[in-house]
Design brief:
- This protein has a single domain, classed as Sandwich (Hypothetical Protein Aq_1857, Chain: A).
- It is mainly β.
- A hairpin with a 5-residue loop joins strand 8 and strand 9.
- It contains 1 helix and 9 strands.
- It has a 6-stranded mixed beta sheet. Strands 1-6-7 form a 3-stranded mixed beta sheet.
- 20% of the residues are buried.
C-alpha cells in the first residue's frame, strides 16, 4: 500500500493542526485527468467514508477510497522543502509515464 516519509507526515500533521475545523485525516486519491491520464488528489477530510481504507501513520490518518487503492499500491509520498520551493512529491514505481510536473501519470 501507500507509504509516507517522515517529512510528509510532519507536513501533513502541520496542515491538519492548522485547519480551521477539526480534521480526521488526509484523503489521497487517484482520478482520471492530467496530461498523462491519471492525477493524484489530496484533501483534508472532516470524516472518513464508510468504504475507505484507513492507513495510520502515527499522528496522521490517510483515507483511500476502494477505486484509488490499487493505483496507490507501492506509492511513496514525500514532502520536499528546498530554497526554491516546497511541496508533496509522489513516487510511483508502477507508473510507465509521468508528466514534467510529477502530478500526473499513466500505468
Amino acid at each position: 500500500m501507500l507509504t509516507l516519509t517522515d517529512s510528509a507526515i510532519v507536513a501533513i500533521d502541520r496542515f491538519i493542526k492548522g485547519a480551521e475545523s477539526p480534521i480526521a485525516g488526509l484523503r489521497i486519491s487517484v482520478q482520471g485527468g492530467g496530461c498523462s491520464g491519471f492525477q493524484y488528489g489530496m484533501s483534508l477530510e472532516e470524516q472518513m467514508a464508510e468504504a475507505d481504507t484507513v492507513i495510520d501513520f502515527g499522528p496522521v490518518k490517510v483515507f483511500v477510497d476502494p477505486q484509488s487503492a490499487p493505483m496507490l499500491e507501492g506509492v511513496k509520498l514525500d514532502f520536499i522543502d528546498k530554497i526554491d520551493g516546497s511541496g508533496f512529491k509522489f513516487e510511483n514505481p508502477n507508473a510507465t509515464k509521468s508528466c514534467g510536473c510529477g502530478n500526473s501519470f499513466s500505468v
